[in-house]
Every structure is written in structure tokens, then in C-alpha cells.
Amino acid sequence: MEYGVDLEIPSDRRIYTNRDLNLDSIAVMGFDMDYTLAIYHQERIEEISIATTTAKLLVRGYPEKLQSAQADPRFAIRGLMVDKKLGNIIKMDRHGYVGRAFHGKLRLLDEDRKRVYREQRLGMEHERFAAVDTLFALPEVTLYADVVDLIDNEPNLWPSGQPPTYAEAWLDVRECIDEAHRDGSIKDRIAETPGMFIERDPDLPRTLHKFRSAGKKLFVLTNSLFPYTDAVMTYLLEEHGPSYGGGWHAYFDWIVVGSAKPNFFIGTNPFQELARDGTPIGPRRQDVQRGKVYEGGHQIGLQASFGCFADEVLYVGDHIYGDIVKSKKSSGWRTALIVQELHNELRVRRSRGMTLQEIESLYDLRSQLAEEISAQRYIARTLGRITPAEFAREGHVEPEAARALLDEARAAVRTRVDRLRHYELETIQMLERRSQEVDEAFNPYWGSSFAERHDTSRFGSQVESYACIYTSRVSNLLHVSPAKYFISPHNKMPHW
């Protein structure tokens, strides 16, 4: 039996629980918009993001050939780290061990990876490493890998013959994609034809209506500015949902746009009230009123208007750092993480269930073999230190007989160690083959987003550490009662 899930609901629609959460005690529910209320078609978003960013890089003097690079939308996943110094993209486990790495789009051999990252525990050099925490960040990682390949293979394409350093290239890509978001190159296209880029979930309006009807207050807290927010929310809620006289605004008690998370949770920026058309109204202020739209602001001011304690607020978002870590550490709000990748993760786990069981068995067998080999090597070292004379005295046998017995025992241990090592090698080879099969099913470059080297990945560990609950989309909450009590599996320490 699984703990923390409702077994009658399909696995990709379940809510998964890390910490006990009683929805009945939640008075206010808040939602991010992008990749939370709005689920994007990732391949189309990557296509337009890479195209617009590439155009801006060409203006900065990057080679025309960059336009012909074949961007693979499967290349980047959440949870990666970019090594700006070396031009590498890496994935690590929860302990900071780098399990696999690519230089551009060329995978590093194991010996090269170990040589570079053996003593490097990521996260300690913030200027050198950039975390890939959002689905919005995936296009820039894919494009950066193409730029690195171009720097290495055709440096002469730059007018001066001097391509940028890997760190300079990363900064250029980041600045260009940020500019594309700011100037509307990306979001204007989405707002014009939202159906091309955003999935309209027919269950979303009913989900919000269900929790409103249960007496809970709702709010939107998004970094997107009002015109884009208005276009997306209109598309999501106003055609197929329950009829509210005020349009999509009527689903929510508070609306905050342009919030500049994660600084929203730690800053003191004032709120600017907006009219329904996005026009500023009156002076900036430190407090907010229910039923109005604001831009900017800070968490303390928003919390003050709720009329409840911070732990009676559940905030739902997709950004592991901007939405979940900061809101949990700084505000005391309970957290729900939207992990769009769960859909593919669970599909692969269902289809490869027998192989995954075999991998688990092989891993256990490998551990047992390693333990037995260690024990036999200890016996061999002990026998190697004993002289025939010592053995003769202890065993009360003649010296010649002692020598023969020692030789026989040593030979027997060597034979057993050789046999165990051969068995271990076969087990490791089979484990690697099976693991590679499953990795390619998850993602041909990186494997599962949630695992690395038979352990939890950095991303998986963050989900486990900071999200009270997590699920693949907001509308999965439609399948649970507004009074649902989520009970987590109470893990034990190894010595308990």
C-alpha cells in the first residue's frame, strides 16, 4: 500500500504527500499562474523562446549558423546545474555528487566527469553554477548547449575570431531571453493565440469553484504583468467554467501581478492598485484590500489582509525556489508544488515496472556481493599475516602440515574472491544495462528528473524537502475533499 495517496485515483492525478496537511484547516489558497494554473505546451514554448532569443544573440554578433542548430526539446530538464566556467551542464544526486555531465551536447566520459567534479560539491560556488529550477528556464539551457558547441567547433565564425568565454555566453543567453520576455517577443505571441501554447484544462474552473464553495478564500500571486495575466486567465476560466458575473477576477479574493518573486517574500515593495483594465489607481500603499487587483507588493502586507495565521494559507506554485522554498522559509505558508513532469515520470514507471523491480533486486544483490567480498578480503589479509610456525603452534600440527593447510586456505579464499568479483562484475553490467534502458525511457540524456545514480536527484530531494504536497496539475485537487487530511509516510532514521 502507498501512503499519502488515494489509490482510487489514477497515479498521474493523485496528490503526493511529504508532510501532514489538513485541508480543513486551510482558510486561504493561493496560486501562481505560469506552469501552475496555466499548463504550457513545452515544445511550442521552447520553439518560440529559442527562436526569439537566437535573433537577439545575432544582433549581439553571434554567428548566423546558430539559427540552423537543431534544438532538441528533450535535452534540458528541471534540476540541472549549469557550470558557467567550463560550459558543462550537470545533474547530481541529493548529496551533491555529479552523476552525469554534458559539455555542450557531448556527454562527458565517466573518467572526465569524475576528474572534474570528484571534489566539487555543487551549490557552494554561486557565481560559477546556475540552477535550472523552472520549466521556463529549459529553452535557455538548450540554446546554451548549442552555443558551447559552436564556440568549441567553429570559433572562427565570430567576427573577431575570438568567441565569448563560456561564462560570457551564458550571460548573453540569459540577458537575451530575459529581454525577449520583457519586450513581449514571447508573451505577446502567447497572448494573441493562447490555444497554441497553453492547455485549457476543463477541470480547472470547477476545481477553483469547489474550494470557493467550501468557504475558502482564493488568491493569484504571479510575476506576470497584468495584460498577460488577463489574457491567460480569461482563456483558462471564462469560457468553460461556472458563471461568475465578474469574469475570471470573480474566482479570486485577491489578485497580485508583477510580484517579483522570490523577493516578494522578503522585500517591502509597496502595492500599486490597478483598475480592471490594468491602469494604476491612486498612490502606492503597504496594505491591500480584498476584491481588488494589485501590482508588486510584499508577503507581509498580503498576509495581513487574510485574517488568518500564516500556516492556514496554502500556496500552490511550480517554481521550487521562487514559489516553494522562499514561501515556506520566509512566510510560513504551507506549500503545494505543481510538477508537470510527474505525468511522464509515472507513465514510464508503469510501463517499466518489472524492469524497475529487477533494478532494485540487482542493486540489493550488488550490495550483498560487495559486503561478502569485503569480508573475504579481510580473511585473506588475516591469513596472509599468519606464518606457518604460528599456525603450527596454534593448531598443534607439524610445520609442514601447517604450511600446506595455510596454502590451501589462502587458495580457497582467493578462488572465492575471484568468483565473487566475477559475479559482481556481471551484476554491475546487468544493472547498468537495465538502468540505461529505463533512463532512455525517462529522458535519453538525463534519465528520471527525480533520481540519479540509484538515489534521489537534487530536484527530487528539493521536492521532498520543501513541498508539503505535490501533484501534476492544480485540477487534481478536484478529486479530493476540501476537508481532506493528507497523511505523509512517517519515515524512520536508519537506526530506528
Structural account:
- With 496 residues, the protein is of the alpha/beta class.
- The protein has three domains: 11-40 and 196-345 and 465-486, HAD superfamily/HAD-like (Rossmann fold), CATH 3.40.50; 42-194, no CATH class; 352-448.
- The chain contains 15 helices and 20 strands.
- The strands form five sheets. The protein has a nine-stranded mixed beta sheet with strand order 1-19-16-15-3-11-12-14-13, sandwiched between helices. Strands 8-7-6-5-9 form a five-stranded antiparallel beta sheet. It has a two-stranded antiparallel ribbon with strand order 2-20.
- Strand 6 (88-92) and strand 7 (98-103) form a beta hairpin.
- It is globular and about 105 Å long.
- The chain starts with 15 loop residues before the first strand and ends in a 10-residue tail after the last strand.
Percent of residues in β-strands: 5-15%
Number of domains: 3
Query: Unreliable runs, pLDDT <50, ≥5 residues?
Result: 1-5
* Sequence of strands across the biggest β-sheet: 1-19-16-15-3-11-12-14-13
- Our measurement of the CA-to-CA distance between the termini, rounded to an integer number of angstroms, reads 21 Å
Largest sheet: 9 strands, mixed
**CATH class categorisation of the largest domain:** Alpha Beta
Structural class: alpha/beta
Spatial shape? globular
For this structure, the quaternary state is: single chain
Provide the CATH architecture of the largest domain.
Answer: 3-Layer(aba) Sandwich
